[in-house]
Amino acid sequence: MTSTPALWALLALSVVAAVLVAALAAVAAALLARWDGASVPAALLRAGAAFGATLTLATALLALCLSGAGPAT
35-73 pLDDT, tens per residue? Predict the structure, then answer.
């Protein structure tokens, strides 16, 4: 696979999209935790856990798609 500027741009956009989705999941988790009556530090801990889990899953899926090791057809 050759390294082209378009490939690097696609990779950068994919990483930015993964971070944005993870941030949205973190905000939603924090708001839901706070709405449930959790303290601010507890809500922030839940938000951090949601951010980390979502970003891990998104980067794992991105790595799987970019490596070409998907299911054989």
Answer: 999 999 999 999 999 999 999 999 999 888 878 755 555
Tally of CB atoms within 10 A around 58: 19
Contact 33, 24 (CB under 8 A): no
Q: Is 23 exposed, middle or buried (0-12, 13-18, 19+ CB in 10 A)?
A: middle
CB atoms within 10 A of CB 50: 21
Distance (Å, rounded) from C-alpha 19 to C-alpha 14?
9
